[in-house]
Design a protein that fits this description.
The chain contains 23 helices and 23 strands.
C-alpha cells in the first residue's frame, strides 16, 4: 500500500475515534467534512457549528498572536441551563416539592468576565455564587443582582468578612454563613448582635462517607473543614441557649471535586439528608441542603469511574440526588428542602479552549549504520551491534535487556576515557535503532512484556509548542490531570507521528506525555508531520476550570491572549471581547521590577558602552529601541 492509498483511506470518522472527540466533547465539539474541529453550543442545530480554524484566522487578522485562550460564552450559558433544567426535570418527574438553586464556586475560575457571565446567564434560574474569602465576597457583591439566588459564604471569616455578609443580608441577599469550625459561631453571633442583623446560618459537617478519585481526602472523618457530629450537637445546643436556633437554615457538606463514582455521591447524600432530618427534629427551621461540589467532567470520554472520568450522566446525577433526599425525608415526614449544589468544574470546563501553534519538531529517525564493523571496534560496541542484528520477535525481551546493559557499559567506558566521542556517538545510533526495532516488533505481540509497555514514548517525536504548561494548564504538571488534546485541523489526513508535547519554558517538567485514551492512558499523541512554512495548531480542551486561576509565572511567561466568542444560530460568530495577554513589562512588574527604572538603568549601561568605545550613539538608539520593544512584547513566541 503506497502513501497516497493510505492517506485516501483516512477519514474524519477515524480521527473522531482516535482523539475521542465524540466521547468527551459533550456534543459541543465535532469534526467537519473539511477536517477541522467545530464548536457548536446549539446541539440541535448543526448549521450553527463554527470552525476553530476560522476563529484563528479572525484572531490573527486582528493582530493577536498565539497562544490564545478562547472563551465560548454560549457554552457557559448552555452548561448552566443544562444543569438547572436537569434538576428541574428530575424534580418534576419524581414530584419533588422543593426547588433547585445552583451556586458557582468563584475559586474554580475567578476571572471577572467568567463570574459576570455566570451571574448573567444564571439569573433566569436564580443561580448564585459561593465564596471562600473576603476578596471573593467583595467580587460577588459587585456582580450579583439576583436577590433570589443563594450566596454561600465558606472559608475563614474575620469581622470584615462577616460584617459585609450581614450587610448583604440586610440588603435582601440570601447570604448564608457556613460554620466550618467551632470557633466561628461566636464571632458571627457577636457581629450580628452589634449590627442588629439576624444571620442566615449553615453548618458544614464531616461525613463518614468518602469518595474515590483524586480528591478523596476532601471527605471523611479526617477532612480539614467541617464539624463532626459531636461538635454539631454542641453548636445546636449553643444556638438554643442563645435563642438563635431559628437562624440555622442550611446544612452543607463537601465530598470532593471530580467524583467519578455515582455510588459515592448517593451514599453521601443519604447520610447528609439523615443529619438534615435530625436537625429539623431538633427544632431548626432549615430549608436548604447544600451538597457541595463533586459533579465530575468526563475528561477522557470513557464513562467509567476512572479518576478523570465519571460513570454517570448529569441527568443520572440529578435524579439520584433527588431520589436519595426524598427517600429519607418522606419517611421522616420532613418537608423537601431547597437543594443546592456547588458545581463549578462542570459549569466552566467546556467554556474555554487553549490554542497554540507548533514551533519545531525533534523527530526520531533511524540512523544509517554499516553492514559490518572495523576489527578495531571496541568489544562492547560489537556486542551492542550484534544485539541489533540478531533481534527477533522470539528474543525481544533478551535483546532489550542486553541493549540497556551494553549501552550503560559503553557510557561508563567513555567516562573513563577508554573510547572516543565518535565511538560513543556511533554506539548511541546503534542503541536507538535497536529500541526502534523492538518497538516495531512489540506491536506483533498479543501481550507485551511489562518492561516494554511504554517503549513508544522513548522514541516519540518532541513537538515544541508555543505555550507554557505552568501558566495555562498547571494541573497537567502538578497533579497529572488529563485534558483532551488534539490537532484542530488536517483531520482528514493520517497522523503518522507519535509525539510528546514540550512547551517553551526551559524546564524538563514543561511537557505533556500523558494523553487520554478510551481504555488506558496514552504516553504519546498521534500528530501530523509539519508542512514547510505552514502553521500547525493544537487545542487543549475542557480547561475552563481552575487552570486560569492556578497559572504560574514560570520563566515569566504570563497570561495568554484571551478572546471571548459568541456563536450565533446562523453559524456566524462574534468576537465580543479581547483581552491582550501579559507583556514582558507586565510580568516583570508582578515580581517587583519597575519597567521604567529598568529602562533608565539599561540606558545608563548603553551610555557606558559608548564611552568605552564599544558602540556608537546610533547603535545606542537601535539597542534602546530593541530593549523597549522587548518590554512591550508578548511573553510568548512572536512572529
Amino acid at each position: 500500500m503506497n502513501k497516497t492509498e493510505l492517506l485516501g483511506r483516512w477519514t474524519k470518522e477515524k480521527s473522531e475515534e482516535l482523539y475521542g472527540i465524540k466521547n468527551w466533547g459533550a456534543g459541543y465539539f465535532s469534526i467537519s467534512e473539511k477536517g477541522d474541529v467545530l464548536v457548536n453550543p446549539y446541539k440541535d442545530n448543526e448549521s450553527a457549528a463554527v470552525s476553530l480554524m476560522d476563529i484563528i484566522s479572525g484572531v490573527r487578522e486582528r493582530g493577536l498572536d498565539m497562544p490564545v485562550l478562547l472563551r465560548f460564552e454560549n457554552l457557559l450559558d448552555s452548561q448552566i441551563s443544562f444543569l438547572n433544567n436537569s434538576f428541574g426535570e428530575a424534580m418534576k418527574k419524581l414530584n419533588y416539592k422543593g426547588v433547585y438553586r445552583g451556586v458557582y464556586p468563584i475559586k474554580v475560575n475567578q476571572q471577572q468576565q467568567v463570574i459576570e457571565e455566570v451571574t448573567k446567564f444564571g439569573q433566569r434560574y436564580h443561580h448564585g455564587l459561593e465564596v471562600g474569602s473576603k476578596a471573593e465576597l467583595v467580587a460577588a457583591l459587585s456582580l450579583m443582582k439576583d436577590k433570589e439566588a443563594c450566596l454561600i459564604c465558606n472559608g475563614y471569616k474575620d469581622e470584615e468578612f462577616i460584617d459585609l455578609g450581614l450587610y448583604a443580608v440586610k440588603m435582601g441577599y440570601k447570604c448564608f454563613f457556613v460554620i466550618e469550625m467551632p470557633g466561628e459561631l461566636d464571632i458571627v453571633l457577636e457581629r450580628s448582635q452589634i449590627l442588629g442583623v439576624q444571620p442566615n446560618l449553615g453548618i458544614r459537617i464531616k461525613l463518614s462517607a468518602k469518595a474515590g478519585g483524586h480528591w478523596t481526602e476532601s471527605g471523611g472523618d479526617r477532612s480539614i473543614f467541617g464539624l463532626n457530629v459531636s461538635q454539631l450537637i454542641s453548636m445546636v445546643d449553643t444556638l438554643k441557649e442563645k435563642n438563635m436556633l431559628d437562624s440555622l437554615k442550611l446544612l452543607h457538606y463537601h465530598l470532593g471535586s471530580q467524583i467519578p463514582n455515582i455510588r459515592d455521591i448517593r451514599s453521601a447524600v443519604l447520610e447528609a439528608t439523615r443529619v438534615y432530618a435530625e436537625l429539623v427534629k431538633e427544632g431548626a427551621p432549615m430549608g436548604y441542603l447544600d451538597l457541595g461540589g463533586g459533579l465530575a467532567v468526563d475528561y477522557d470520554g470513557s464513562n467509567t469511574n476512572y479518576s478523570y472520568s465519571r460513570n454517570y450522566t448529569v441527568e443520572e446525577y440529578c435524579t439520584d440526588i433527588v431520589e436519595a433526599v426524598m427517600s429519607i425525608l418522606d419517611s421522616s415526614g420532613v418537608p423537601h428542602p431547597v437543594i443546592v449544589t456547588e458545581s463549578g468544574r462542570t459549569t466552566v470546563a467546556y467554556y474555554s479552549v487553549l490554542l497554540f501553534n507548533v514551533l519545531d519538531v525533534e523527530k526520531f529517525e533511524e540512523y544509517d549504520i554499516p553492514d559490518k564493523l572495523d576489527e578495531s571496534t571496541s568489544e562492547q560496541i560489537k556486542n551492542l551491534y550484534d544485539v541489533n542484528k540478531n533481534l527477533s520477535l522470539k528474543n525481544i525481551q533478551e535483546c532489550y535487556n542486553d541493549a540497556l546493559y551494553y549501552r550503560d557499559e559503553i557510557r561508563d567506558m567513555f567516562k573513563h576515557g577508554r573510547i572516543s566521542l565518535r565511538e560513543r556517538a556511533f554506539s548511541e545510533k546503534v542503541f536507538w535503532n535497536t529500541i526502534n526495532q523492538i518497538a516495531k516488533e512489540k506491536q506483533k505481540l498479543k501481550n507485551s512484556p511489562p518492561d516494554l509497555e511504554d517503549i513508544e514514548s522513548a522514541i516519540a517525536d518532541i513537538y515544541y509548542c508555543n505555550f507554557s504548561v505552568f501558566q495555562s494548564i498547571p494541573d497537567s504538571w502538578a497533579i497529572d490531570q488529563l485534558f483532551p488534546i488534539m490537532p484542530i485541523h488536517r483531520l482528514l489526513e493520517l497522523p503518522k507521528r507519535n509525539a510528546v508535547i514540550a512547551d517553551i519554558t526551559c524546564d524538563c517538567d514543561g511537557k505533556i506525555d500523558r494523553f487520554i485514551d478510551l481504555h488506558d492512558v496514552r504516553t504519546t499523541l498521534p500528530l501530523h508531520e509539519l508542512k514547510n512554512g505552514d502553521d500547525y495548531y493544537l487545542g487543549v480542551f475542557l480547561v475552563g476550570a481552575y487552570q486560569e486561576t492556578l497559572g504560574d509565572l514560570h520563566n515569566l511567561f504570563g497570561d495568554t491572549n484571551v478572546v471571548s466568542v459568541r456563536i450565533n444560530p446562523d453559524g456566524n460568530y462574534d468576537l465580543v471581547k479581547e483581552i491582550q495577554g501579559d507583556s514582558v513589562a507586565d510580568v516583570l512588574s508582578y515580581v517587583e521590577f519597575d519597567p521604567k527604572d529598568m529602562l533608565v538603568r539599561f540606558r545608563e549601561t548603553a551610555e557606558d558602552a559608548i564611552r568605552d568605545g564599544l558602540i556608537s550613539a546610533s547603535d545606542r538608539r537601535e539597542i534602546m529601541k530593541a530593549y523597549d520593544n522587548g518590554l512591550r512584547g508578548y511573553t510568548y513566541y512572536e512572529r
